[in-house]
Amino acid sequence: MNLLSNILYLSEAGPDQASSLERAVTMAENNQAKLTVIDVVPVITAGIGIPPGGPISEQLQTTVVDSRLKELNTLIEPYRKRLSIQTDVLVGKRFIQVIRAILRNKYDLLIKPVENPGFIERLFGSDDMQLLRNCPCPLWLTRAGEKSKYENILAAVDFELDIPDTVDRDLNWKILDQSSSLALSDHAAMHLVHVWDAPGELPIRLWSDNPEQTSMAYLKGIRARHEAALADLRTQFKARIGEKAYDYLAPRSHLHQGAAATVIPELAKQIHADLVVMGTVARTGIAGWLIGNTAEAILEQLQCSVLAVKPPGFVSPVTLPEA
């Protein structure tokens, strides 16, 4: 099953992106999808006293765009025999123009090499973080030296036991669909991780006559419920992709108590994950802030590539300009 039909690759000038572009080309080939490679240049003004939009400013802008377009065409030249690749250079604020291109052309995946922002950029919002927050389609941030084929893929799933949430459920399916598709195409090992906590443990310890015994019983019960939920998800996943594909993948489950922001990066390191597929959902309901503190903390720590998935129904606060 091909999950993708229209892929967008955003060039990143700093890092060596040959392996990342190779991954994008391979994804397009495997899915029989279109591939477009773009970059964004800032608005150019001629200088003090010369208004933007005048003849000199326009000439400078055209020169910059043409120069960058030539660089993009040189970048994709080695892949032209494999498939047709479109190129384009946009003008304006980087993350906004990329998101508008996605909305305009209905891309279903954005791939880009991860940037290396300084402290101030991370604090106030690098392009990567802005895209993670606001990009309407899945975002694949690749690391330098991206493998042509992954060996280990980690899919992070989540669910609320007491308040079943269709957003969580549908997001889990998007995460599992993307993870299993990649694992099958790369012949990679697939891992599922679910991190749970027990918010009632401290009150129980404070108020129980036998805090140790009561706490242990409480934790055992909570863990059993999460084990059952994860087992049920695996059963549904098997029915979703078919017994043959499921048995081939033989996904391994990891159920951990603790904070997801700590557990997931540590587990990714332990299993030598090449890719972590995770959602960026937070229950704020505020457009543009769907990525939560936990997701941001995880992404800051991971040393592997990341495929960040938005839940169904997400609407980016970035919109197309009115005609």
State the gist of this model.
This protein has helices spanning 18-31, 55-76, 94-105, 119-124, 127-134, 166-186, 201-207, 211-241, 243-249, 260-270, 293-301; strands at 6-10, 34-41, 85-91, 109-113, 139-142, 152-156, 189-196, 252-257, 275-279, 305-309. It has 323 residues and is α/β, with parallel strands linked by helices.
Overall description:
With 323 residues, the protein is α/β, with parallel strands linked by helices. The chain folds into two domains: 1-146, Rossmann fold (3-Layer(aba) Sandwich), CATH 3.40.50; 149-318, Rossmann fold (3-Layer(aba) Sandwich), CATH 3.40.50.12370. It is built from eleven helices and ten strands. The chain has helices spanning 18-31, 55-76, 94-105, 119-124, 127-134, 166-186, 201-207, 211-241, 243-249, 260-270, 293-301; strands spanning 6-10, 34-41, 85-91, 109-113, 139-142, 152-156, 189-196, 252-257, 275-279, 305-309. It has a ten-stranded mixed beta sheet, sandwiched between helices. α11 (293-301) links the parallel β9 and β10. α7 (201-207) runs antiparallel to α8 (211-241). It starts with 5 loop residues before the first strand and ends in a 14-residue tail after the last strand. The model is unreliable at 282-290 (pLDDT under 50).
